[in-house]
């Protein structure tokens, strides 16, 4: 049974800012701005701060350390996600489509299908504090490697094994998955960018505090 940590504005003990915990990481809190599938800032991301549980952040720092010798690093797109943001996604599906967002993020689906097909959920692993969305970048410039698809593209081609991706794109997805698994993260079959710490500290708790 899932617990609920309430709507506190105080960050619970055991969460850390990725800006402090992962040296050299590139941060781009997508839901803090308009560059996401909703086309607008999402409630709960007002401060643009990305947090994870301390064990997940420590494991992520080890990932970054292992990539640095080959000139690669991590860009974090989302981490801890308050439940209020997940609730907002549900509300967003009831609103009229924005043609630009639809063409970019879900061109072959209707909003009504996104929950049914599992692209959106009513309780997200992100809200437990140990799930991260990320990609690989070249260092020191921070240019993203070509993964053959954008973050939050609601389509089968977001699967790590998408046959329509090029050999180099599949190799980049494989590299990200391999290094994350090596450091204790489990991938999600539907999204090449999504990973959850295998031994997460709060597997049954949904948090709703605002990161700051």
Question: What does this protein structure show overall?
Answer:
This protein has one domain: Muramoyl-pentapeptide Carboxypeptidase, domain 2, CATH 3.30.1380. It is globular. The mean pLDDT is 94. It has 212 residues and is α/β, with parallel strands linked by helices. The longest helix has 16 residues, at 167-182. The strands form three sheets. A five-stranded mixed beta sheet has the order 3-5-6-8-7, with helices on one face. Strands 1-9 form a two-stranded parallel ribbon. A two-stranded antiparallel sheet has the order 2-4. The protein contains six helices and nine strands.
The stretches of 5 or more residues where confidence is low (pLDDT under 50) are none
The assigned structural class equals: alpha/beta
Number of domains: 1
Biggest sheet record:
5 strands, mixed
